[in-house]
Amino acid sequence: MTFFVSISTSKDIANLSPKLGKSIARIALALNYLLARHADKESNILFSPLNIVQTLTSVMLGTAGQTERELANFLGIAIGRQLDERNKAYVHKILGDFLNSVTVENSNRVDVGLSLIMAGGIFVQEGYPIKPSYIENAKSIYNNEVIAVNFEDTTAASRKINQWVSEKTNGKISSIVDPSLDPLTRVIITGTLYFNGNWEYPFIPEATKWQKFYLGSNGKADKRSVQVEMMVNQAEIPYYEDRSRGLQAIGMPYKNKEFYMYIVLPMFGVEVQNATTCMTPKDIETIVEKSKMAEVFYVIPKMKLEAEYDLRHSLETLGAKSLFSPTNANFTDIAEGIYASQIIHKVTMDVNEIGTIATAATSTNINRGGYVNFRADRPFFFFIYNVKVGTMAFWGKVQKPTPYK
């Protein structure tokens, strides 16, 4: 992973925020590659690089030495020297302000039809004296909490963690750990995110039909398929095509046009995993910035996606190793003698017709002529992007939409 800025002076710190979007895209592409390597070919991938970054920045807040440097490197920051207390506070304020500017922490944004609920929790074994300054800073800067649990009572510990997660996500995510926890666990780091947005141009529910979704890159020629509900719409939206790369993409805006879901469809014969492996953060920027407004007739699957990962192996592969080492972990600013056992990440997402339905207006739009045809009826990948801040909130790769029959 390449560093995007070296932190050694106040000027470097001031330049940190504009570079974070690229770093989050880089993390998303790296994690997509690693998660795909350990999954079967027909598995979907879904995660929130934004939520992962938010969780790990709050962890970095409590670390020092090698552990702090490794986490900073993972986040795309090269620490030129050990941060003093003043610079460390400044760095985390910038990181926290950036993350909070992207997220919507509750479901009260009725005015924009958007709900983005993020929760981060660091669960520490009871008896470890957690520093009050860390508890205060993790909450005030990153909206994350430090909570004491007794991992020796695995049933009670898992129940406490799951109740916390359920409360933070308004019941959308009911559990994230099970009672088979290792009783020797000392720290579990969790990140959860539930997203539900109203489309700026809602789909017509009556037009949604069960149709074939082809499981191979050649569409009908591959013959293997499942039946999924396909939604239909037509609107003037961002459209991108790169024949040299074998890609076409659309950007579907959510209410207020701050967040867009970009669906990227490899052209016939291009495997979706091969397409994502070749992507760079610059390619993500290009899709967003070079898309042109066009009248598009688009058909996409109605999906209910869910994924859960223990990211320990991925983080270790990407260089954050000491975090999990009983002998090398340095959580000095949280408590002495602790190390991470797991980093659990769970995401749920609904992609459906929900929105403020104006049937007459939408019906008129659907009948316009001279349009681009975009049909996502074979494997594709997508990302939800905040165009105002310039960063990615979600990444997903869809091999077989759910539900299907």
TrEMBL record:
CDD domains the record matches: serpin
Family affiliation: Belongs to the serpin family.
Residue ranges occupied by any Serpin domain in the UniProt entry: 29-401
Coiled-coil ranges from the UniProt annotation: none
Domain of life: Eukaryota
Pfam families hit by this protein: Serpin
GO cellular component: a single term: extracellular space
SUPFAM superfamilies given in the database record: Serpins
SMART domains: SERPIN
Record lineage: Eukaryota, Metazoa, Ecdysozoa, Arthropoda, Hexapoda
Designated name of the protein: Serpin domain-containing protein
Annotated source species: Parthenolecanium corni
Keyword Hydrolase in annotation: no
Keywords: Protease inhibitor, Serine protease inhibitor
PROSITE patterns: SERPIN
InterPro entries linked to this entry: Serpin_CS, Serpin_dom, Serpin_fam, Serpin_sf, Serpin_sf_1, Serpin_sf_2
One function term, GO molecular function aspect: serine-type endopeptidase inhibitor activity
